[in-house]
């Protein structure tokens, strides 16, 4: 799986958009970008994934650069409940071998 | 769909005793279950991979005789921390990979050894 780099922490004001970056400059052509988050003292939760097109679901949007070397997870209207550690993971598929978690970004949403 | 139920959510035990953590797949069959450990302010670290009906595969540095994993059925995997010590205090999380769905995680077990 390709290595990812994320800022260790970020703050966001409640109600504003939270933009979480992820660098994955060594990503291969068949690798997807997955985002998970972990709220304190809970198991990780799947958010979204994409290959090269931008994706949107009820939780977030994923913007992947044209060269696929970086991506941004966007929470359009962050709430206090979005405070969590967000993990960007690059891999070929979303099943099979174990997921490898990096350091992630600790997002603090403030009132 | 694809829910993993993990119990207990927290447990406190005395040093030297054993603790069992259960993970059940509620609406699918989990042929493989992954067990992670997470220390405060750190990321999840894979401990072992359990496969139904066979021996678990442990990551380097994880003592297989201390962390006993049993995956006797397609819906149940257990992790037993034997002769627990304070340094085993951690957050333990199980996960299953579901074809066509992705990864689903248990809610975690916070173990405190006193």
Give a short overview.
The complex is a heterodimer of chains A (111) and B (114). With 111 residues, chain A is mainly beta.
Overview features:
heterodimer, A: 111 residues, mainly beta, 9 strands, B: 114 residues, seven-stranded mixed beta sheet, four-stranded antiparallel beta sheet, 54% strand
General description of the model:
- The complex is a heterodimer of chains A (111) and B (114).
- Chain A is mainly β and 111 residues long.
- In chain A, 0% of the residues lie in helices and 45% in strands.
- In chain A, a hairpin with a 4-residue loop joins strand 5 and strand 6.
- In chain B, strand 4 and strand 5 form a beta hairpin.
- The radius of gyration of chain B is 13 Å and the shape is globular.
- The relative contact order of chain B is 0.33.
- At the A-B interface, strand 4 of A face strand 5, strand 9 and strand 10 of B.
Bin the strand percentage of chain B. over 45%
> What structural class do you assign from the helix and strand content of chain B?
mainly beta
Q: Most extensive interface: pair and counts?
A: A-B, 21 and 25 residues
Low-confidence stretches of chain B: none
Looking at how many chains there are and whether they match, the oligomeric state comes to: heterodimer
Quickly count the helices of chain B.
0
Q: How many strands, which pairing sense, and closed or not: the largest β-sheet of chain B?
A: 7 strands, mixed
Number of strands of chain A: 9
Fraction in beta strands of chain A: over 45%
Structural class of chain A: mainly beta
Helix percent band of chain B: under 10%
Low-confidence stretches of chain A: none
How would a textbook summarize the main sheet of chain A?
A: 5 strands, mixed
Distance between the termini of chain A: 37 Å
pLDDT averaged over residues of chain B: 93
Radius of gyration of chain B: 13 Å
Radius of gyration of chain A: 13 Å
Helix and strand element order of chain A: EEEEEEEEE
Rounded average pLDDT of chain A: 93
Helix content of chain A: under 10%
Total of DSSP H or I helical runs spanning 4+ residues of chain A:
0
């Amino acid at each position: 799986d390709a290595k990812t780099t994320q800022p260790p922490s970020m703050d966001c004001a409640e109600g504003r958009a939270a933009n979480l970056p992820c660098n994955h400059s060594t990503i291969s052509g068949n690798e997807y970008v997955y985002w998970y988050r972990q709220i304190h003292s809970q198991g990780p939760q799947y958010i979204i994934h994409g290959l090269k097109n931008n994706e949107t679901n009820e939780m977030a949007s994923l913007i992947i650069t044209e060269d696929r070397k970086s991506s941004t997870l966007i929470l359009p209207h962050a709430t206090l409940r979005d405070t969590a550690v967000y993990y960007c993971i690059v891999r070929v598929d979303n099943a099979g071998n174990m997921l490898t978690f990096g350091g992630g970004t600790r997002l603090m949403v403030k009132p | 769909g694809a829910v993993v139920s993990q119990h207990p959510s927290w447990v406190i035990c005395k040093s030297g005793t054993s603790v069992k953590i259960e993970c059940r797949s509620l609406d699918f069959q989990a042929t493989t279950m992954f067990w992670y450990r997470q220390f405060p302010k750190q990321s999840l670290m894979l401990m072992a991979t359990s496969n139904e009906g066979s021996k678990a595969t442990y990551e380097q540095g994880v003592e297989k005789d201390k962390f006993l994993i049993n995956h006797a059925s397609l819906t149940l995997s257990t992790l037993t921390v034997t002769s627990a010590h304070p340094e085993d205090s951690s957050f333990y999380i199980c996960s299953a990979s579901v074809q066509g769905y992705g990864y689903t995680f248990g809610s975690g077990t916070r173990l405190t050894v006193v």
